[in-house]
Design a protein that fits this description.
Elements (H helix, E strand, L loop, with lengths): L19 E4 L9 H16 L3 E4 L11 H14 L27 H13 L3 E4 L3 H9 L3 H5 L60 E4 L6 E6 L3 E6 L7 E4 L7 H11 L4 E5 L3 H14 L5 E5 L19 H6 L4 H5 L8
Parallel strand pairs: 1-2, 8-9
Antiparallel strand pairs: 3-4, 4-7, 5-6
Helix pairs in contact: 3-6, 6-7
The structure holds zinc ion.
Zinc ion (ZN) binds next to loops.
């Protein structure tokens, strides 16, 4: 698919294949052991393919990202022995590589461009629901099922409302609650409610924008690691946010925009993002771009079966390093893997 740019900086070695992978830490805290296997797998796969590994800092959320964590992530990954060929820290003549900047907060114009392209497909609509609006609809008996055309949540599907329905990047993006469809009527064409139509918008402004999923459409893909995956749009996930009212793109939009622009051929990430992959495949389809291959890693859990979260400060790489552990200790740690 993509070929490595001839002037791509090489940290350790020359690259010899078209494989392009990426590491995409989000600097909202210190990396912890739960991240290590995914990053290590991404590193190994790029290395075994003789390809290029890209480091991309996913620092879009202004409320939660901190420069100190971005620096720490680069430092901790280097300490583990992971190397990349393109990234924000490579100070070559082409500023880290041919597809920079490699920091999401500096790529706004790229995201805006993708937002406009999606808008022209007629699949976006502005969503003016407040958190309270969504909470009321989702809490009402059968509230979600009435407006989502191909059936909403079943009674047993008790997906609790995320604290932030705008969706917080990096914090379980798969858990965005099924959108009840309230603002779908604002879509371009023949708006049935008073208010602006999508075609009048040149930039997102201070409102949320959602992607209208094709209800009932099956999204299937074969994960390189986990095998065949199948999701149904409108049932497994609803209309999802692509642009947030606070002026930043959602994880879904930014990820697709960057993976496409950086010519990533394989995405290696945690299995907690499988549903996000289904959403992102719909964005690729709408944009007319071939998606990359997907390799989702099983999640590491603690000995009580709970997923390791960044909140587990004692398991941060920072803390483990300070306790004298070596990269080998950490990479060979006996941690259960969620099936
Ligand atoms: Zn809405």
């Amino acid at each position: 698919m993509a070929s490595p740019a001839p002037n791509a900086a090489s940290a350790d070695r020359e690259t010899s294949s078209a494989y392009r992978g990426r590491l995409a830490p989000s600097p909202t805290g210190y990396l912890h052991v739960g991240h290590v296997r995914t990053f290590w797998t991404a590193f190994q796969r790029a290395r075994e393919a003789g390809g290029t590994l890209v480091m991309r800092m996913e620092d879009l959320d202004p409320d939660r990202c901190r420069p100190v964590y971005a620096e720490a992530a680069l430092d901790d990954l280097r300490w583990l022995g992971i190397r990349w060929q393109e990234g924000p820290d490579n100070n070559g003549p082409n500023k880290g590589g041919p597809f920079g900047p490699y920091v999401q907060s500096k790529r706004s114009s790229i995201y805006l461009d993708v937002w406009r392209k999606l808008l022209r497909t007629g699949r976006l609509f502005p969503c003016r629901c407040s958190r309270k609006d969504l909470a009321v609809v989702l809490d009402a008996p059968h509230g979600g099922a009435q407006t989502q055309q191909s059936g909403g949540k079943s009674d047993s599907d008790d997906s609790k409302l995320n604290d932030n329905p705008d969706h917080e990047p990096d914090q379980e993006p798969d858990d965005e609650p099924l959108y009840p469809g309230t603002c779908r009527l604002f879509m371009g064409g023949t708006p049935q409610l008073p208010g602006p139509t999508a075609s009048e918008f040149e930039d997102p402004g201070g409102t949320n924008w959602r992607f209208r999923v094709p209800d009932g459409e099956v999204v299937e893909f074969v994960d390189v690691n986990l095998g065949p995956q199948r999701f149904v749009a409108g049932r497994d996930f609803g209309d999802f946010v692509v642009w947030r009212r606070d002026g930043v793109p959602s994880y879904q939009l930014a990820c697709v925009a960057d993976d496409a622009a950086m010519r990533i051929t394989e995405v290696v990430r945690g299995a907690d993002l499988l549903k996000s992959t289904a959403r992102q495949i719909l964005l690729y389809r709408a944009l007319g771009i071939n998606p990359p291959d997907w390799y989702h890693c099983r999640l590491v859990v603690d000995h009580n079966g709970r997923r390791l979260a960044k909140r587990h400060d004692s398991l941060s790489l920072r803390a483990l390093r300070q306790r004298g552990l070596t990269p080998m200790n950490i990479l060979s740690a006996d941690l259960p893997i969620e099936i």
